[in-house]
Amino acid sequence: xxxxxxxxxxxxxxxxxxxxxxxxxxxxxxxxxxxxxxxxxxxxxxxxxxxxxxxxxxxxxxxxxxxxxxxxxxxxxxxxxxxxxxxxxxxxxxxxxxxxxxxxxxxxxxxxxxxxxxxxxxxxxxxxxxxxxxxxxxxxxxxxxxxxxxxxxxxxxxxxxxxxxxxxxxxxxxxxxxxxxxxxxxxxxxxxxxxxxxxxxxxxxxxxxxxxxxxxxxxxxxxxxxxxxxxxxxxxxxxxxxxxxxxxxxxxxxxxxxxxxxxxxxxxxxxxxxxxxxxxxxxxxxxxxxxxxxxxxxxxxxxxxxxxxxxxxxxxxxxxxxxxxxxxxxxxxxxxxxxxxxxxxxxxxxxxxxxxxxxxxxxxxxxxxxxxxxxxxxxxxxxxxxxxxxxxxxxxxxxxxxxxxxxxxxxxxxxxxxxxxxxxxxxxxxxxxxxxxxxxxxxxxxxxxxxxxxxxxxxxxxx
Length: 463
Known about the structure:
The protein has 17 helices and no strands. It has helices spanning 12-44, 47-84, 87-122, 127-141, 144-160, 164-187, 191-215, 232-264, 268-284, 286-304, 308-335, 337-342, 348-361, 363-380, 384-408, 414-417, 420-446.
C-alpha cells in the first residue's frame, strides 16, 4: 500500500518521530474542529451560545472517544498481522473492520438521537442554553456514520504504518470546517446549529477522501462482496481488543461530563470557563495522546515480528518526548492563564472563573504525559483489559468522588474542581508503572534458556 512503512526496522527515535508527528498533526487538526467552533461562537454570539457549544462538544466527544477507542482494534490487529507477515489475516481484518463499523454506526446513530433529550437533562444544561445545545448535539449526531467509517479506514492505514494519509484527510476537512464556521455563524448567524452543520460536513469530507484513497489501493485490499464480510474469528478479536479501550474512553469522558454537570449548576460563566479550559486540555495533551496512539501501532507491529525489546525502546523514547512537550502548556497555564482564556472570550465573568481552574487542572498536562504513552504501549500488546480497569478506577473511584464531595459541600471555587483530574491521572500512571514492573518479571520467568525472547503475542494477550 502506498505510504506503508515497516515499523520493525530503522533507528527507534527516527521511526517514532516519523510515525508520530503525522499523528500529532492529525490530532491537532481534529482538535481545531471544536476549538474553532467555540472560538467563532465566542466572537459572534452570546455567553449562552458559548455554554451550549461547550456542553455539546463534551457530549459529542464521548461518542468520538467510543468510536476511536473501538477502531483502535483495527490498528492493533492489522499491525500485529503485518508484523507476522500474514497477508490473508490482514485482508480479513480490513473487511471485518469496515463492515462491522458501518453497521455499528447506524445503530449508534439511532440510539444517540433518541437519547439526546435525556442526556441534556442529566447534564442540567442552563435553561438559556438548552435549545442551542439540543440543536448542536442533534446535528452532530447525524455525522456518526462519517466518524465511524473515517476512523475505521484510518485505523487500518495506521496499522500498516501509514500515518500520513489520515493527516491529509483531516487537513482537508479542517479547512472545510473553519470556512463553514465563519460562513454559517459569522455571515448567516446560525449560532450553535451552524457550527454543528459545519462539523458534520467536514467529517463527511474526511470520510469520502479516506474511502477514495483506499479504493485506489486495490493491490492491498480489493473491495468486493467476497472481501467485505464479517469473519467470526476476526470479529471476536476486534471486540476483545476494542471494547475495553472504547469502554475506558467513555468512562473517562463521562467523569469529565460529571464535572460539566456540576459547573453548569454554578452558572453560565462557570460552564463557559470549564468548556474553554477543556479545549486547552485537548491541545496540551496532544503530544501525549499522539505518542500513545502511535505506540499502539508501533508496539503491535514489533511484537508481531517478535521484537519486544524494540517495542520497549519505543515506549521509553515516546514517554520522554511526551513529557517534554507537555511542559510547554503547563508553564503557559501557570504563568499567564488569562491570555489562554482571552483567545476565546473577553467576558470578565468567564475570565474570573476560569483562571483558578486553568491553574489547577493544568497539573494534569504533566500527569497524562506519563500515562498515555504507557496506555498506548499496553494497548498495542493487547493488554486492553488492564488499561480499561486502571482508567475506569481512576475516573470512577477517584475523580468522580472528589467532584461529588466538592459539590456536596457547596464549594463554588473552580480552582478546587480542577485538582480532581491530576490527582486521578497521577494515580493511574502509578498503577501503570507497577503493572509494567510485574509484567517484566512475569516475562523473565517465562523466557526459555538460550532463546532470549518472550512467547509470541498471539498467546500473550489480555492480562
